[in-house]
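User: I'm writing a tutorial on reading structure tokens. Could you give me a worked example: one chain, its sequence, then its tokens, then a sentence or two explaining what the tokens reveal?
Assistant: Sure. Here is the example chain.
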Amino acid sequence: MDVNAAVAAAAAIAGVLTGVIAMLAFRWSEREQKRPTRTSLHTDPVLPPGVDTVLSVLRSSAVVLDEGDTVVKASSAAYALGLVRGGKLAIEPMTQMARDTRRDGEIRQVELDLPRRGTGRGEALAVSARVAPLGSRLVLLLVEDLTEARRIEAVRRDFVANVSHELKTPVGALSLLSEAVMGASDDPEAVERFAGRMQIEATRLTNLVQELIDLSRVQNDDPLEDAEPVRVDELVAEAIDRCRHQAGTKQITMAAGGTADLHVWGNRGQLAAALGNLVENAVNYSPARTRVGIAARKMSAPGGDLIEVAVTDQGIGISDKDKERVFERFYRVDPARSRHTGGTGLGLAIVKHVAASHGGEVTVWSSEGQGSTFTLRLPEAGAARDRASQHPDLDDEDGQPTTETSPYEPLPAPEVLP
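And here are its predicted structure tokens:
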């Protein structure tokens, strides 16, 4: 009897102990589940409500850091810029800014130049970094890429400087020549000579202003608003007629050939100006008693048939380094020759913008001492209407032109025009 009582008591005590242990184990498990783990510190629930949504719509690259400088949240743009690597902020000046802001709560902003990833040319990214506290433990870093804005600003600054320089030259010459005329009032021959020089400088100034107007127009106007089918042979004939006097003076033969009855879709005035600039350059940069050829043909392309007009000369040619820049505004391969011919350095820039606005392109093949071939490719009249809304945005002259890697394929024998 006493033995049975003892066994029952022992069993009761064991049951109570088991229940107590189970309760303690359950509470310990709940506590462990609620305790933040190393992984949970870097997941979205750590962020204040709504912050994740706001960061996802920002144009700037966003990075959120905790008190250990570990990345809690980063946008895809931040990874693309190389700001975040291995869960850490990879830019030491930005990390130091975050620490300073976490310490005193002040908002900081700085502009930095960062090395560009994936290039071996030492190019830098210009960024603006802004750091602000986010709650009591987190810091928000916003980084905006200023590279493109700085590039455009540099282009505009250079353009204004170039325009000022180009305008200053003929204006200064006119001023000096007018003084010379006044001083030589009693010498009719000197007055006539100086007046002739003044007329040359005035013509040069007029041409420069007109080409600036033309360049501004092709950049700002949509040529396809007043587009129409344009016969290519008419454009070629107009370009030849425009340069007939200069060519005759240098005894340069101009010849036209290729496929007849071709049409492009676009603004007739702009297309005529573009092709005229190409032919005029060919004549100006060709020696006397040489030949300039203009040939047109139709070619197949993935997006639709193209009309290709090639202007070939036997001039001085263009070096490889100059080929990369000939379509820039005011860039001249031979400045001395340009001054002699009255060139402004804007002709090829106008050609590039006209081609791009019509959904086409202009390319160049050249070899020093062997001449050059400038090729204007435009959508055929039928295909151009479908591609009208797809032409690229026009920015500035720093967009690199396309250069041919092999000589232009010969076209059918041209017909010499009288």
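What the tokens reveal: The two ends are 140 Å apart (CA to CA). Residues 36-45, 387-418 have pLDDT under 50 and may be disordered.
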